[in-house]
Amino acid sequence: RGYFDKTIGSMERCPPVYAVVFDDELVAEVPRDVHDQPVTGVVTPTRIVDLHPSHT
């Protein structure tokens, strides 16, 4: 279990969490493991992608 997943998973209320990647690293789907924590969105050098628009 990764450091990020441990930290986010231990919070009672999780703030919005955005992954920061380059544009060419943005993909439609990422494989998930049972310990992975979801992110709110993705930030690239050219845009911000909100993955959960209903939670705003």
Fold topology:
Layout: H1 3-10, E1 18-20, E2 41-43, E3 48-50
Parallel strand pairs: 1-2
Antiparallel strand pairs: 2-3
What does this protein structure show overall?
The structure is a single chain. With 56 residues, this protein is α+β, with helices and mostly antiparallel strands. 14% of the residues lie in helices and 16% in strands. It contains one helix and three strands, in the order αβββ. The protein has one helix at residues 3-10; strands at 18-20, 41-43, 48-50. The protein has a three-stranded mixed sheet with strand order 1-2-3, with no helix packed on it. A hairpin with a 4-residue loop joins strand 2 (41-43) and strand 3. The longest helix has 8 residues, at 3-10. The model has no long low-confidence stretch (mean pLDDT 82).
Tags for this entry?
single chain; 56 residues; alpha+beta; three-stranded mixed β-sheet; 1 helix; 14% helix; 16% strand; globular
At a glance:
With 56 residues, this protein is α+β, with helices and mostly antiparallel strands. The protein is 14% helix and 16% strand.
